[in-house]
Design brief:
Blueprint: E1 19-22, H1 26-36, E2 43-46, H2 50-59, E3 66-67, H3 71-76, E4 83-86, H4 92-104, E5 110-113, H5 119-130, E6 135-142, H6 144-150, E7 153-156, H7 160-173, E8 176-177, E9 180-181, H8 191-219, H9 225-235, H10 243-253, H11 263-266, H12 276-287, H13 292-304, H14 307-315, H15 330-363, H16 369-375, H17 386-396, H18 407-430, H19 435-448, H20 454-465, E10 478-480, E11 488-490
Parallel strand pairs: 1-2, 1-4, 2-3, 4-5, 5-6
Antiparallel strand pairs: 6-7, 8-9, 10-11
Helix pairs in contact: 1-6, 8-12, 8-13, 8-15, 9-10, 12-13, 13-19, 15-18, 15-19, 16-17
Length: about 500
Amino acid sequence: MSTDTTQSSTHSPHAVANIGVVGLAVMGSNLARNLASREGNTVAVYNRSPERTRTLTTEHPEAGFVASETIKDFVASLSKPRTAIIMVQAGAGTDAVIDQLASLFEPGDIIVDGGNALFTDTIRREKAVSARGIHFVGAGISGGEEGALTGPSIMPGGTVESYKTLGPILSSIAAVVDGVPCVTHVGTDGAGHFVKMVHNGIEYADMQLIAEAYDLLRNAGGLTPAEISEVFAEWNRGELESYLIEITAEVLKQVDAKTDKPFVDIVMDAAGQKGTGTWTVEAALDLGIPVSGIAEAVFARGLSSHPEQRAAARAVGLPGPAHSWNIEDKAAFIEDVRLALYASKIVAYSQGFDLIVAGAEKYGWDIRKGDIAMIWRGGCIIRAQFLNHITEAYRENPGLVALITAPYFTEAVARAQESWRRVVAGAAQAGIPSPGFSSSLAYYDGLRADRLPAALIQGQRDFFGAHTYGRVDAPGVFHTLWSGNRTEVELS
């Protein structure tokens, strides 16, 4: 953001607003409208381009916005403790706005970054801003444009003290499920944005698994998009009930007006991404947590985005299986795919919560996992009936070592695993890519294994790099003198 050179607002900058929004693109505008619609809120608004501010206030006079055309007037319009939510593009623009506000705010005031910021940036920003006595809150906000307007799921970090002011405001605009607002204080500094990042990673996995289910139903089961839409609509009435399953049914029944073809057939098969899935995988690698379902979803989007490689593969005639998948019982096949989807979904969420646990341990966050599942039940993209079971699992056992080992999920996977195996095996034999399904099953089998081939890998590492190993029958650290007489020495 450049230095503010706009003219002063025509409104008198009296300190009357209890909350302000900086950045009035669609997300910021919708969030400001949501805030203004809730009893007790008076909302100050500011945008670098004053035309956007004028458009918002003109189109929505009922909101009673306190509009400013300079950052100084915006700050002056806020009552103490001044509280402002930044809704601008992540990166340098966010830093510029933070610097502007911090130079005008006073100790005790609150700056909230509501964008999709990298959690390590939030940790850095919080440290710098808090040194001035100002609270800095990284708040993950999920639900897209519609959620921002009607009720999102909100994941704020920051200090406990700042949440005393901010909590009631955010609760007033959050989605509500069973009378509970979908917002909770996640933890200090970057905790909110970390949890939002993991949410987005799980979202990547969920979408990839749904796409694989569609692909199998169509290319192995022979169903049309309209028929698959009906299947997903039926699934949405059961244990797979979720926002993503619901919208999948809607997308698949859409017909293109120009060609009269299924909408899904006229869309380029190249999936975009804005980076939060990649951040999730990078964080998992740093923390040593396997999130194979999320990683495969990110990689699948990457593969889809290189059509020239697929064209080259087809041009040289890379061979595939000689025979197609012969589905004799279509209803049984559809049920197998449903169960494979559900089991793989359990793995994705289990891996995501493993990552949250590891992040909390490394960065010193007191994250209540059951509360996270609870606030994801409404407003956000991954909202689902399924999350009630996660909340219950962590309520019954807060120290659960892995979500998949909770009784409900153990039973669900046990019920699904034979179908899961048939689907993964059949897809491989038919040459239908299913990286989400297959990697999730491999992870599941890795968890079940009495011993993993990692013993051989550690032996290899000791051979070429003297990286040492542990023994199953004795404590300590050992190394074999591979280039010598191959005797074993104990190092500790």
